[in-house]
Write the structure tokens for this entry.
Amino acid sequence: MAFKLTDEQRDVVTSFGVPLRVLAGPGTGKTLCLVERVKFLISKKKISHKNIFVITFTKRAAGELRSRLQKSGIKSDQLPYVSTLHGLAVHILKKYRHKTSLPAGFRPIDNVFARILLKDTVHALLVKNIRLSPNEVREFNHAHLQNKAGAGLPAHISSNTNKKRTLASFSRNFHEQLEFYDALDWNDIIQSVLELIDSCKEAREEIHAQIKYLLVDEYQDLSPLEQRFTKRLMDDHSGLCVVGDDDQSIYETFRFAAPRGIIEFDKEHPGSASKVISLCYRCPPKIIEIALALIQNNKQRASKKLEAFNKDKKGVVVHLSHRSKKAEILWVTSKVKELLELKNFRPKDIMILFTDGDIAKDYIIELEKENVPLDIQLKISHLFESETFVGFFSILKLLADPNDNLNTRQSLNFWRGIGPETVRQLKNLVVSTKSNLWQAVSKVSNNQSAFEEIKQRKVVLAFHDFIRELNSLKKPRQIVERMATKFSEVMSDRGIQILVEHIKSFSGAEEITNLKEIIKDFEQKIDSGELESESDEVDKVRIMTMHSAKGCESPIVIIPALEDDIIPGNAENVEEKRRLFYVSITRTKYALFLSWASQRSGQEIHKVEGRKIIGKSRSRFLTEIGH
């Protein structure tokens, strides 16, 4: 093997015959084990790559794993199927669509379009005299998603008849929005595959015959529905291997992850085996010491251990308190500048983590004043999920296929001045004239006087005329150049920049290619995860949320705003917040700076400028780690 495996890792790579749970702590080399296990299956056990499936949590992780498999010596035509759970589910549905009741052109939706549909759903309910406050929108959307993820209804809704009735209306209207676009959300996709496997013997037998070895990464982050999905993909679970760490499960609240699934894996899979990878290559002993002191306070944990591979590796933990947020901001800024002036560290060697993006805003302003180069990753999980990117890209996709209602709706959302009421009226026109959404836009634009009930019809006309102008341009390069002029305020979006560079790379080949082919090529590159690596070498200080830092590492990690009312705050699930802090402190390879302020002001606290909270207390998690 290209790498020298430890005894623990070798045991993981070569253990077969029963369902296997691998508990891999932070920095213990789980990706290496996945790569070597696949190599072992192909080279030693002579298993066809067509019978090996590897599931990752993100497209980026899938792309990295494919790259590492090839670098390990596996030829490109012998790579196993490596994808996200979402990618595999969509692949199965498209292959067996004729065996389902799904429309021929069904579309999976992303998070951005889900937010658009949420906006349309709330407006549809308002038209029906069901008015929801912003807090109620969040409450019912969360309950709707939680129920579909197989995690059940929140108790405060299941015990309240009125709330259950409102939730039923909310869910019904959301699905009406989906049906208009022939769209499925994530949980619908999973449920559709499960129904296919249960109802269609032919599809079930073919799926089971092909998937003989299934490796699932980050198993602790799967919802109950997703865990059920992975189980149903196989009839013989002796080839199932799940890898993860319940101590790093940080998506219970956001994605309804069920860490109990990996903790109690043996109950769901009797006769299974469990392996632990305990040697951490990333963190020094000092960091592991405080991490374990923290996480041992959680009651729901699988039995495992974690220790430094290099017992002599130096590590530094610094804990500081400040009299105010302003003082903490000035300290963070001066510390970053000081570290960079030492010449031992480059900007990309420093990571600053926050529990919430709102808290980071004032810190960013001060760092930018001091000309510190920043890579800000607060709102999105990867480059191609920002609303600006999706909106910009949807206009190009509308040009390529004006019959696609989903692309038209996303483009309308991107265009300023067009809201849910205008869209509702356009959709009514689609239904009454048996047309599509772009044709409805054209009808309103071409006959303004006939649609006086549409108050924003002049805005619709401006949108229509801009799309027609783009259509008149002959070359894709000219189209994106015109869009860059029109939407100059979003051109700093890195995803858009990569898209524009991709399209311009086809300059000179316009006579033998077209926009639709270029778009399809770009989407395939997004799905493969290869495009996201283009941002990896940016030499800037990373500003991230604790959630977005999952899977990252850095020589220096700075975590400000560690007050108890911020973390864990008023969270019902304190154990999840403790896991989030555990993940955060185990990102560092050398130095960890922990900081809090006894006074804090600003919109991130009260959403009212100038208000203060004084006499704040440090996070209880700092006490638990002995600081």
